[in-house]
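Changelog entry

Holo records now carry the ligand SMILES as an explicit input line rather than a separate metadata file. Below, a converted record for magnesium ion, shown in the new format.
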Amino acid sequence: MENFVQTNKLILLGKLTASLVHEIRNPLSAIKLNLDYMSMAQDDLPEDIREIVGESLDAFEQVNFLIEDILDFTRRPTTKLHQVNLDSITDRCLKIISVSARLKGLTIEKEIETDLPLLNVNKNKLMQIFLNLLNNAVEASSEKGKVIIRAYSRNDQDCKNAIWEVQDFGSGIKDEDKEKILGDYYTTKTQGHGIGLSVCKMLTDELKSELTFSSLVGQGSTFTVRFKENCIITQG
Ligand SMILES: Nc1ncnc2c1ncn2[C@@H]1O[C@H](COP(=O)(O)OP(=O)(O)O)[C@@H](O)[C@H]1O
Ligand SMILES: [Mg+2]
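Structure line, unchanged by the conversion:
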């Protein structure tokens, strides 16, 4: 579990770094333009200022290299793809989550359709999505509650979709919280980090998949991931 929280933080850090570096580029180009302008007029500048402009341009190049490096790294498609069976990946997640589920005396039911298509996705990222959703379902449930995991396929406008969802019968989500929970750092838990769902949103976006939920206070919630054609390995 430690490891899994740590992974959430690293994923979010990657996203923050990329956007920070992106934001730094604009003011940096303004500085570069001004320096270029000064260096064009260098014949009119006193010797010491000319040197300062030259040094500033060198320093700019160094920062620029660094930024390109970081952007390259965050952009790089390091993600390996695997052929993933939804049933077995669910079992692997269940093993990890089983300790906290057992402590609460929860029953976890699995309704996985046979003949589900295989997915072509990175299995670690997929597990990170499922573990975050399962973890939230366990945390929202009351003692001796029940959690149901479903996986099934549906045709949507002639495209095959694979759907994975987790339903709990726990606290539910207040209407006013619904628009906030997918954002960064939003938590209603004293020990929460508020990054699990934003990581799920980021990873499902990366897969061009859909993350949706429905919830009623006092009755529970269902979080659904819909994998579209781009993630699905079509047979034959
Ligand atoms: N299954 C669920 N049932 C009720 N509330 C939920 C559920 N999943 C998420 N939430 C709400 O969304 C918030 C954000 O969840 P998350 O991003 O995973 O962060 P954390 O679990 O650390 O609070 C939670 O604090 C909780 O209010
Ligand atoms: Mg969480």
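Spot-checked after migration. Strands lie at 82-84, 107-112, 118-121, 146-156, 159-168, 210-216, 220-227, 232-233. The chain has a mean pLDDT of 91.
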